[in-house]
Recover the amino acids of this structure.
């Protein structure tokens, strides 16, 4: 009898374990697969202009392509920062500037999927962001720091076009929902046909 | 935190179970129980009692006290509010009592930012410690502040009431001893609004988080203790942004309220649209209203009463004599519009501006959308219209206003349905887009602004409205449970329009309907008051706005002798219109003098001060008036100081900014959502998954061994 009880219990535990593990797998699979589908939508959107939902019924669409050669990163950035869109890719915060435009452009992503690499970026590292008009804007990392989301304000009007990447901190925390954030700031160094960008290049030769 | 604790328990327990040579069903059951505990603990952590918190939940820097429960804390200062209102005729005198209770072992200073009606004349302060009471005095602001700081330093109990905005005040209480309670009683007076045949009285309860534009100044130079840094555009940002409580902590600041109303006429209906109340009718047109037991300060209170048909007053005159000075309050209701006035309004150009900033997320945006949909339906083909939305950026539906064809309206409705709330409240750009300063002959140009007005840079916006109004009219429609009524009523006054407040979804139709009905055209224009011959009169307001249907003319004046009769004249359509108020029927009432002073101060402060000399002169006049009538203004504060020091010299005092509730219906995530949460629970899932699998292996192994 006892043996049977232990056996049933073990089965239940095994089932529970698989359930939990598949939950984790699902999160990562969704994050990976979505990027593949986004890539197709991005190609079409670049070719014929209007934003395209990556799959039927999606409430978001790719607005930019983020590439960091040094970290081997190539990800598509989604519109409209909702928790929902975050599952599929880095998300551009609505209301912040467009990448490469005057002001601060804020992109956020999960620390355990798309922005895992953020901690490895160093000042001087190059980030390329391609917007829907096909233009590639090049940024250089100027600062990386940890901030408390309850007390930190992110500027939305910066003197030069800025890209701010945000994710949760610490990277390896088990429990989600902590108050700390890891923030990487990068300033525009060269935007093709972007007058502010060329001016910038003249002002700051040190980071070109 | 709690979760980690349970984790350890789990690990210890399972290793114990493995060491034991005789594995029993009982221990199996125990393991299962522990596992279940782990799974449910995270849920329980959120549902724990509301007067204690875990530090991670604190959305603000507050003093926390350890409690008996491990890992749970309590806020150091508890606050509750009691409101007593006495209404006679058109004037309400109100006493607000704020009780600060120190639950810690430290000596504390409590700082609380709270709202009052934007026409509140704050004139009294009493500090109550046990049975002792100390009365406060109005002094110039700097002097009051110095006196308070000195008392705080020397260990004396003291309190200070300062005005941040006409509708936002701060109470500071110094040296609240461990375990003691200090009551702060604030007396103010406000006027009852009479419009559309209804009397209305508002009591705001919570300061909503404001949008603060501009560049932050150095962190060391902050003027206050709020969540925002001072900026070049809002130099007192840190004073007007009290910490906001995370709604998961449960509400704070319990409110009790009692209003005693002497209406002066037979009352048909009494209503409190946003709160559950008990109403008791008494003799002689009097009634008493009480708030139901557990109410927290998270939305504005409103009380309205309607006269029985035929008893609605058409004119009223109240007088008061203080220190040999005579004051009069005159109210005249214009006649109802006749058939010719109802038909054939001028063609209109209507511009709707809707706020889609983060503070509008939730109920507010739903209300605004419903209001807008309703308004779109009222447009006729003769009208032209446009829809503008703003948050951090401004977008408009059409490049230019379009004729309101069925197709255009369909497009507009579709556009409105798709609006989402996100981002900052950059009203300035929206004002620039909707007001162009031009003349529009043959058309009434009306701009409707649907917003909660949660901004901190009011003065710049008022300037903008004044300079760009042209012959347009600006109508503000306040949305949500706690809109910034000061900003919106004043913006409407500068915009020569009106302010309408919509507090909940099912009011939208009614309020928009009455607004639109009366907007078809003004009923009375060029209104003037003829005072008895040769009397030098200081009246306020000195320029009267156009009147729409259902709105009375109200005027407060200071006169050298009581008036015998007062003539009100104006232009109704193209005919002259006249009304005479006979002073013989006037009643005396206290508070008219104070009301006159409050309104005169407001008029002085609204004058555009050209040079800095003018401004200093203006300030002197305001201070002079405020001291004479004992009123709190931008330049004067109320202060009380106890005589004897109570705090031992060797004990330090700590400041504790008190948190306010988030206004009801607001969404916390959107207001403080600049940095969204960016972690999944995938790690947690992996760890749970692995533990379960290992445990099951152990189980299988043991089951086999027994066989």
């Amino acid at each position: 009898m006892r043996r049977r009880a232990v056996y049933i219990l073990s089965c239940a535990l095994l089932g529970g374990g698989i359930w939990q593990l598949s939950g984790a797998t699902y999160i990562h699979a969704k994050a990976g697969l979505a990027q593949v589908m986004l890539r197709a939508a991005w190609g079409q959107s670049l070719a014929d202009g209007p934003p395209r939902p990556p799959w039927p019924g999606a409430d978001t669409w790719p607005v930019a392509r983020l590439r960091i050669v040094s970290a081997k990163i190539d990800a598509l950035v989604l519109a409209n920062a909702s928790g929902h869109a975050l599952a599929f890719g880095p998300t551009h915060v609505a209301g912040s500037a467009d990448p490469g435009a005057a002001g601060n452009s804020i992109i956020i992503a999960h620390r355990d999927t798309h922005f895992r690499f953020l901690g490895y970026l160093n000042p001087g590292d190059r980030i390329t962001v391609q917007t829907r008009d096909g233009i590639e804007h090049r940024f250089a990392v100027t600062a990386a720091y940890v901030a408390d989301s309850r007390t930190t304000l992110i500027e939305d009007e910066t003197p030069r076009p800025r890209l701010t990447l945000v994710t949760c901190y610490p990277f390896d925390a088990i429990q989600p929902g902590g108050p700390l954030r890891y923030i990487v700031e990068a300033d525009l160094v060269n935007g093709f046909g972007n007058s502010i960008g060329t001016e910038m290049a003249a002002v700051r030769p040190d980071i070109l | 935190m709690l979760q980690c604790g349970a984790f350890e328990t789990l690990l210890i327990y399972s290793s114990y179970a493995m060491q034991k040579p005789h594995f029993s069903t009982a221990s199996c059951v125990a393991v299962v129980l522990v596992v279940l505990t782990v799974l449910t603990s995270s849920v329980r952590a959120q549902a724990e009692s509301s007067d204690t918190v875990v530090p991670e939940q604190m959305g603000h820097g507050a003093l926390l006290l350890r409690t008996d429960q491990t890992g749970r804390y309590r806020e150091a200062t508890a606050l509750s509010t009691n409101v007593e209102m006495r209404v006679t005729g058109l004037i309400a005198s109100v006493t607000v009592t704020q009780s600060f209770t120190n639950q810690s072992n430290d000596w504390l200073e409590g700082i609380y930012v709270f709202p009052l009606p934007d026409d509140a004349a704050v004139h009294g302060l009493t500090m109550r410690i046990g049975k002792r009471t100390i009365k406060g005095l109005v002094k110039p602001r700097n002097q009051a502040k110095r006196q308070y700081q000195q008392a705080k330093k020397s260990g004396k109990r003291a309190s200070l009431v300062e005005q941040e905005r006409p509708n936002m005040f701060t109470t500071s209480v110094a040296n609240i001893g461990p375990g003691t309670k200090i009551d702060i009683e604030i007396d103010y007076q406000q006027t009852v609004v009479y419009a559309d045949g209804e009397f209305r009285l508002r009591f705001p309860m919570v300061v909503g988080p404001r949008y603060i534009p501009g560049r932050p100044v150095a962190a060391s130079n902050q003027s206050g203790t709020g969540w925002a840094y001072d900026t070049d555009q809002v130099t007192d940002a840190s004073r007007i942004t009290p910490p906001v409580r995370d709604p998961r902590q449960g509400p704070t600041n319990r409110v009790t309220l009692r209003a005693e109303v002497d209406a002066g006429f037979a009352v048909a209906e009494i209503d409190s649209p946003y709160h559950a109340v008990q109403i008791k009718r008494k003799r002689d047109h009097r009634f008493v209203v009480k708030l139901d037991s557990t109410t927290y300060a998270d939305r504005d209170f409103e009380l309205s009463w309607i006269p029985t048909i035929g008893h609605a007053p058409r004119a009223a005159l109240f007088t008061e004599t203080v220190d040999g000075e005579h004051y009069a309050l005159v109210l005249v209701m214009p006649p109802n519009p006749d058939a010719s006035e109802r038909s054939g309004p001028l063609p209109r150009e209507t511009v709707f501006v809707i706020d889609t900033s983060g503070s509008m997320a939730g109920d507010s945006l739903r209300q605004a959308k419903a209001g807008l949909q309703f308004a779109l339906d009222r447009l006729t083909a003769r009208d032209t219209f446009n829809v503008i939305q703003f948050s951090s950026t401004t977008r408009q539906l059409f490049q230019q206003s379009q004729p309101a064809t069925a197709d255009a309206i369909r497009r507009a409705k579709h556009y409105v349905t798709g609006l989402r709330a996100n981002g900052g409240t950059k009203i300035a750009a929206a004002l620039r887009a909707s007001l162009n300063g031009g003349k529009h002959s043959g058309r009434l140009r009306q701009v409707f602004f649907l917003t909660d007005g949660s901004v901190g840079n009011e003065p710049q916006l008022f300037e903008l409205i004044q300079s760009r109004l042209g012959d347009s009219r600006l109508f503000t429609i306040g949305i949500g449970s706690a809109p910034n009524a000061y900003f919106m009523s004043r913006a409407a006054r500068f915009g020569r329009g009106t302010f309408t407040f919509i507090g909940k979804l099912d009011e939208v139709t009614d309020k928009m309907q009455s607004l639109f009905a009366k907007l078809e055209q003004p009923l009375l224009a060029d209104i003037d008051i003829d005072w008895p011959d040769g009397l030098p009169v200081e009246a306020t307001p000195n320029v009267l706005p156009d009147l729409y249907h259902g709105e009375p003319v109200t005027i407060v004046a200071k006169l050298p002798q009581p008036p015998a009769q007062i003539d009100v004249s104006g232009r109704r359509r193209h005919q002259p219109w006249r009304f005479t108020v006979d002073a013989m029927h006037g009643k005396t009432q206290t508070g008219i003098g104070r009301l006159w002073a409050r309104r005169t101060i407001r008029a002085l402060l609204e004058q555009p001060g050209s040079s800095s000399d003018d401004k200093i002169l203006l300030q002197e006049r305001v201070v002079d008036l405020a001291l004479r009538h004992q009123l709190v203004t931008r330049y004067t504060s109320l202060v009380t100081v106890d005589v004897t020091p109570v705090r031992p010299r060797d004990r330090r005092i700590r400041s504790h900014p008190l948190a306010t509730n988030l206004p009801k219906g607001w969404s916390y995530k959107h207001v403080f959502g600049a940095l969204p949460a960016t972690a999944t629970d995938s790690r947690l899932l992996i760890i749970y998954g692995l533990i379960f699998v290992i445990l099951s292996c152990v189980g299988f192994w043991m089951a086999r061994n027994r066989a």
Notes: Chain B has four domains: 79-202+240-309+632-645, 210-239, 315-338+529-629, 345-519. Confidence is low (pLDDT under 50) at residues 1-73, 669-675 of chain B. The longest helix of chain B spans residues 682-706. The domain at 79-202+240-309+632-645 of chain B is CATH 2.60.40 (Immunoglobulin-like).
